[in-house]
Amino acid sequence: MGKIKEVFIELKREYKDFDDEDLPYLFEQYVKKNYPEQMKHNNIFTIHKDTAIKALEGIYPHPDMFSREQLKEALERHYASKNRQYTVVSDNIELKGQCINNINEF
């Protein structure tokens, strides 16, 4: 299990009253607090679920069936040469910070 996935699971356990919409913010704060050296690299990108699905359509048979965590892992695996980590959020959430708005940015 990847470190990002472990952090998300920990955040979900710790902040049970928060919505999924709050998780990207909580994740960012957690990383800033506990891993300041990794924030210097700025390799964490936020992406909408729909855009992630489009980026993986030719690679996987039905990426629309993936959960957000599975999409994140698939993006990191397929685009490993980019040396990025991804946070996949729902389509109705506004992207903040470093983000990927369309598949042309891959």
Layout of helices and strands:
Layout: H1 3-14, H2 23-34, H3 36-39, E1 44-48, H4 49-56, H5 68-78, E2 85-89, E3 99-100
Parallel strand pairs: 1-2, 1-3
Helix pairs in contact: 1-2, 4-5
Overall description:
It is a single chain. With 106 residues, the protein is an alpha/beta fold. The protein has one domain. Helices cover 44% and strands 11% of the residues. The chain is built from five helices and three strands; from the N terminus they run H-H-H-E-H-H-E-E. The chain has a three-stranded parallel β-sheet. Helix 1 packs across helix 2 and helix 4 crosses helix 5. The protein is globular. The two termini are 24 Å apart. The model has no long low-confidence stretch (mean pLDDT 83).
Number of helices: 5
Total domain count: 1
User: What composes the largest sheet?
Assistant: 3 strands, parallel
Terminal residue distance: 24 Å
Instruction: Give the CA-based shape.
Output: globular
Unreliable stretches (pLDDT < 50, length at least 5) are none
| H-E order | HHHEHHEE
Share of β-strand residues: 5-15%
Q: Pairing-aware structural class of the strands and helices?
A: alpha/beta
Query: What order do the strands of the largest sheet run in, or round the barrel if closed?
Result: 2-1-3
What's the number of extended β-strand segments?
3
* Arithmetic mean of pLDDT: 83
Tell me the helix content: 40-55%
Estimated radius of gyration: 13 Å
